[in-house]
Amino acid sequence: MTHAYRTHNCGQLRAEHAGSTTRISGWVHRVRDHGGVLFLDVRDHYGLTQVVADPASPAFKVVETLRSEWVVRIDGQVRNRLAGTENKDMPTGLIEVYATEVEVLSQAAELPLPVFGDLDYPEDIRLKYRFLDLRREKIHNNIMTRTKVVSHLRNTMNDIGFSEFSTPILTASSPEGARDFLVPSRIHAGKFFALPQAPQQYKQLLMVAGFDKYFQIAPCFRDEDPRADRLPGEFYQLDLEMSFVTQDELFATMEPVILELFNTFKGDKTVRADVPRIPHSEALCKYGSDKPDLRNPIEMQAVTEHFAGSGFKVFAGMIAADPKVEVWAIPAPKGGSRAFCDRMNSWAQKEGQPGLGYIYFTPAEPSQEDRPATGHDYDAKGPIAKNIGPERVHAIKNQLGLKYDDAVFFVAGRPEKFYRFAGDARTIVGKELALTKENEFAFAWIVDFPFYEWSDEDKKVDFGHNPFSMPQGGMKALQEQDPLTIKAFQYDMVCNGYEIASGSIRNHSPETMVKAFEITGVTKAEVEERFGGMYRAFQFGAPPHGGMAFGVDRLVMLICGVNNLREITLFPMNQQAQDLLMGAPNDPTPKQLRELHIRLNLPEN
């Protein structure tokens, strides 16, 4: 043997290697005793190889001592497996290695979690022993998929003419919509750097500098509360910017990139080629979300007119008292049973709602003496149907295109107060009735976001999203329109209910930039102070430009078919934003604090 540890890796040997000698190294995946003959599955990054030792083998005594996750070197003879014992689901499943020599390279203590199999284990154990967790097949494969996705994106962006630039990690604090991570400066006492929430200002400055097409796989840092689809602390995004570009041209550039990515890694799923553009307000009304899951075919509709002045006093009274009240209908195809409607009503009550009104339709039963003589060939069931009467019920049924065995649910109030609940109800209905096509990727662009929104907390107008976006209508809109009616050249790309990208056409005019901030109460002097680099740059010829950023973590999460970013991230923090493996955050030493001129003022326990 010429190599100290292996002539082949554990995923390499095939039937054509039978009769040759080999040396492999890896971890003992599992040990099986079949009547005195010992079988080992030996694992490395590349796969598994079955190793056999019988009492006649010179390595048998050593093999008897081996335990799971010990690291071993094995010399042996490659041979075909006996007929009937082949494993055609495994690349090396036609052969085995008859062990002639075994060297233990490293022993493993008792395992705090098993590597063999895919049983779920408590988060604290998995993250504290992440190096073991990452040995497990599913998550190991997920991490490799992530690596391939990033490589694919990088190659594609290079191929279509983008240049990769690295922007600074230590920078100034910037209002990206979340808390900054601050880094104290030792040299400049009392001053702090911030870790970038996004490379927003730098990439815009690159356009001003004339680089035309920029991208990077950028690390971003936000001091946010964790959740399943957002890691605490840090995440990565495919960040990009283009000069002399319109919104339509940006879509035309990036839509093929993402569709090709998903078609490359789709596995047995399908990728919808059609990517609709949905105005933000329409998305809220139809789907109850600005990141709608279009695999679910249900579209909500307003049915306020059918309840105004009706016998259903709860809704009718709300409509009469407040002109901003609306009633929305959530169709439920094939949901026309009392049992399903009651389940949905119970779900709504668990969500803190008083209930979920409904009507469900069944074929007419003329023999029932108490059935209203409506002339219709269906029966409408439920308290709402009885209260609003057959004509209004028929109008609702026709508007929504409902049939026998269908149902419809209703929510009422000011839409801004209930649209999220309505969207959640739509999601539940789609899943419960198996309407949502789980084996599909469905994309959409959400466009025409509000430029401003009203902040109840601060009692003032504030930016709805990115403060550097271009308002539709430019300076004229800022001067003449009600701020809350102005739309932005702001857009998201969504997939299966997740926002996977966000971007905008940028405001490249210094005068328009100042005016946009002034409407939120920020003065010109404050703009110059807080965004001095970009404000100065815009004085010297800024090209029209725009861009976006795709969340790499969410792209990989969708491709791998998991619901938690922990399953596709190497070393994530836990839900309390702690790194259990490295013990971070930890206490600074007194010397470190003195050098940074910092004294701690900790809250009392």
How does this structure look, described?
The protein is α+β, with helices and mostly antiparallel strands and 605 residues long. The protein has 19 helices and 24 strands. The strands form six sheets. An eight-stranded mixed β-sheet has the order 6-9-10-24-23-22-19-12, sandwiched between helices. Helix 4 packs across helix 18, helix 14 runs parallel beside helix 15 (510-518) and helix 16 crosses helix 17 (532-538). The termini are far apart. The mean pLDDT is 94.
Mean pLDDT: 94
Task: State which percent range the strand residues make up.
Answer: 15-25%
Helix content range: 25-40%
Helix/strand/pairing category: alpha+beta
**What separation lies between the terminal Cα atoms?**
63 Å
Total helix count?
19
What key attributes describe this structure?
605 residues, single chain, alpha+beta, five-stranded mixed barrel
Short description:
By secondary structure, the chain is α+β, with helices and mostly antiparallel strands.
Topology:
Layout: E1 21-34, E2 37-44, E3 47-53, H1 60-65, E4 71-80, E5 95-106, H2 123-128, H3 130-133, H4 137-159, E6 163-164, E7 182-184, E8 192-194, H5 200-208, E9 213-222, E10 233-243, H6 247-265, E11 270-271, E12 277-279, H7 280-287, E13 301-302, H8 304-307, H9 313-321, E14 326-332, H10 338-350, E15 357-363, E16 378-381, H11 383-388, H12 390-400, E17 407-413, H13 415-432, E18 440-441, E19 443-447, E20 452-455, E21 460-463, H14 474-480, E22 490-495, E23 498-505, H15 510-518, H16 524-530, H17 532-538, E24 545-551, H18 552-560, H19 590-595
Parallel strand pairs: 3-5, 6-9, 11-18, 12-19
Antiparallel strand pairs: 1-2, 1-4, 2-3, 4-5, 7-8, 9-10, 10-24, 13-14, 14-17, 15-16, 15-17, 19-22, 20-21, 22-23, 23-24
Helix pairs in contact: 4-18, 5-17, 7-13, 14-15, 16-17
